[in-house]
Amino acid sequence: MAAQNRLITLNNGVRMPILGFGVFQVPDDQTEQVVTDALAAGYRAIDTAASYGNEEAVGRAIAKSGIPRDQLFVTTKMWIQHTGEETARRELDKSLRKLGLDHLDLYLIHQPLGDYYSSWHAMEKAYGEGLVKAIGVSNFYPDRLVDLILHNDITPAVNQIETHPFFQRADYQQLMRERGVQIESWGPFAEGKNDLFTNPVLAAIAAAHDKSVAQVVLRWLIQRDVVVIPKSVRPERMAQNLEVFDFDLTDDEMTRIAGLDTGASVFFDHHDPQMVAWLGGRRVD
Ligand SMILES: NC(=O)c1ccc[n+]([C@@H]2O[C@H](COP(=O)([O-])OP(=O)(O)OC[C@H]3O[C@@H](n4cnc5c(N)ncnc54)[C@H](OP(=O)(O)O)[C@@H]3O)[C@@H](O)[C@H]2O)c1
Question: What keywords tag this UniProt record (predicted)?
Fold first, then answer.
């Protein structure tokens, strides 16, 4: 299964699996088993974050797996509370310690909030020291991304943003492509919102290929060259979500899915001051 996974090349030459595994909202006491199951299923890229509170459990599963480090692609993210140059560097060291790793494959600024320019300088330095193989951002809207690119030395390798059939980000993907930034989807299934798993358009396409709606959504994103990191705590779904390299969606099917776009988040708006205040006030150990 893993052998069928595709690698994409980031703007600094680092190669990243186009299909990985996310652990947001996996409770800390389940994460070690869930990541162990995901690695056994064939996933080699794991996406966590300091704010998920489960980096140590991810680290234990990685250590126990015995999989050589160079076959894994590990991403974590820095929380808003820890922006700033010195704080960011301490936070990177903390994440490395919790994960039990001597380097990350990808380190992301989790939100475009707080003093993230200073964090970016710390990340550029850590990249120079080889502690992180690639650095990037998450939840950056186009204005913030372009500004960060224009006023710093290193262009983010990745921008991890909400991307799914109801919020497709095609224009933004094009802008990122022109700027050399790889789009990575979070919430590929919109966490099931808007009845995604029973959507009639997706269900009809799934039936035509003898696949599930989840597989069609992942295939559609992969055919658009979007990196995906679906989350599941169930081994049968982990396996199912990997089986997306043995079929192709037709142009007509891609167009029908394009018609589901609402152009808006199904979660929250990063421009909403109340949301900015809520996120900025969230504290992480
Ligand atoms: N950067 C950010 O701000 C940010 C925000 C959100 C997420 N993320 C990252 O993106 C990853 C994925 O997003 P997400 O976890 O929010 O949501 P998601 O992957 O869109 O959806 C996960 C939900 O889909 C269900 N599911 C998974 N596979 C399925 C299948 N084959 N059939 C039916 N249901 C299925 C899961 O249930 P079960 O677990 O019960 O199977 C879970 O309820 C996260 O884990 C995290 O790593 C990043």
Answer: NADP, Oxidoreductase
